[in-house]
Amino acid sequence: MAIAVTEDLHHLYFATPRATRKWANLARNPQVSLLLDNRSNQISDFRRAAAATLLGTAREITGLAREDGLTIYLSKHPHLADFAASPSCALFLVEIERIYLVTRFQNVMEFHLTP
Fold this sequence. Notes:
By secondary structure, the chain is α+β, with helices and mostly antiparallel strands. It has a single domain, classed as Pnp Oxidase, Chain A, CATH 2.30.110.10. Helices cover 27% and strands 43% of the residues. The protein contains four helices and six strands; from the N terminus they run ββαβαβααββ. Strands 1, 2, 3, 4, 5 and 6 form a six-stranded antiparallel sheet that branches. It is globular and about 45 Å long.
C-alpha cells in the first residue's frame, strides 16, 4: 500500500479501490493500526531496522479535502495519478493519534499526537 504522511506526522493518506475488502472494512470500522517498517531481511536489520505502529481513525475524503489530500499523496507517488483519479478509487485520510516506534528490536518510544 502506497502512503503519504504529512510532515507533522498527524495525517496519513492512501488510495484504494472501493471494491476491496480494505474499503469495506474501513466503512464498518474506521479505527486503524498500520505497521510500517524498513526491514530488508538482512543481518544488518538487528542494528538498523525500525518499525512504527500508527494508531488512528480513517475516513474517506471528498471534495476540497480530497483535492488537498491528492496533492500530498501524488507529490510522493506521481506514478499513481491515473489510479488515484479513477472514479472507483477512494482516498482515505488517517488522523494519527499515537505512534509506537521500535528500533533495534527492543527500544520502544511512544508518541501521543494531539490535533
